[in-house]
Design goal:
Blueprint (H helix, E strand, L loop, with lengths): L2 H18 L7 E2 L2 H8 L3 H13 L3 E4 L3 E4 L4 H12 L3 H21 L6 H12 L5 H16 L2 H14 L9 H13 L2 H16 L20
Antiparallel strand pairs: 1-3, 2-3
Helix pairs in contact: 1-3, 2-3, 5-7, 5-8, 5-10, 6-7, 6-9, 9-10
């Protein structure tokens, strides 16, 4: 059995232990020695597992007291992983590009399901000046995901969103949302693709079919 395999199994066993004993934030975990005995694993494997969990903010070690479960906040692990995964600029650009493609597809999927009441609600949202660009984007596309009712796509989008918060993100402007809502009202399905592609070309110098290999640099539109 490889070291990586043992390490993964120990993490899984610790998770099972926490669930079995219904441990919550602030509860104390067994020491490395005690946990190793309970799991019938080596202390070194338990130590590495604890280190990984502490790095992700899942547990905290208090000197002279022991190891305790932390209040888990999902963005901690996202920010940590992003610092490693997104170190190269092309990966950052690809992430933002992929997120936009997903938003385009959910906008198309919502086309035959969206109602006039939905459009009215979104129109009010777009015109509400108290929302930040990030808040407006979150609520707008969350509404479309709710209309389409595809949980898996929504979870993927949320994960991409969490990653992009660690970057310098380019948000849609108000006129983009207004244009999209007008397309829904006018029943112009094919124009949705063209509207997103135009925005992608202006922003990322890529289109939805052919990726221009010569340019991975994000160009910021003046209106965003």
């Amino acid at each position: 059995m490889t070291g990586q395999k043992v390490y993964q199994e120990v993490l899984e066993e610790i998770r099972h232990y926490i669930e079995k004993h219904q441990l919550t934030s602030g509860d104390k975990l067994p020491s490395e020695r005690e946990m190793a005995e309970k799991l019938q694993a080596s202390r070194s494997s338990v130590r590495e597992a604890f280190r990984a969990m502490e790095l992700l903010g899942l547990i905290e070690t208090r000197r002279g007291e022991g190891t305790f479960l932390s209040t888990y906040r999902s963005y901690q692990s996202v920010e940590l992983l992003a610092s490693f995964i997104l170190r190269e600029s092309d990966k950052k650009n690809d992430l933002l590009f992929t997120k936009t493609i997903l938003e385009k597809e959910i906008s198309k999927l919502a086309f035959h399901l969206i109602t006039k009441e939905d459009i009215k609600h979104l129109s009010i949202l777009v015109k509400t000046s108290s929302y930040s660009k990030e808040e407006r984007e979150n609520i707008f596309f969350q509404t479309l995901f709710d209309i389409v009712d595809n949980t898996l796509l929504m979870k993927i989008w949320r994960l991409l969103q969490a990653y992009t918060r660690t970057l310098e993100t380019i948000y849609y402007d108000v006129t983009f949302y207004e244009k999209l809502l007008q397309l829904y009202l006018k029943k112009e399905y094919e124009a949705i693709e063209k509207t997103f592609d135009k925005w992608l070309n202006l922003t990322y110098k890529k289109d939805s079919i052919h990726i221009h290999e010569s340019s991975h640099v994000i160009h910021h539109p003046q209106s965003v």
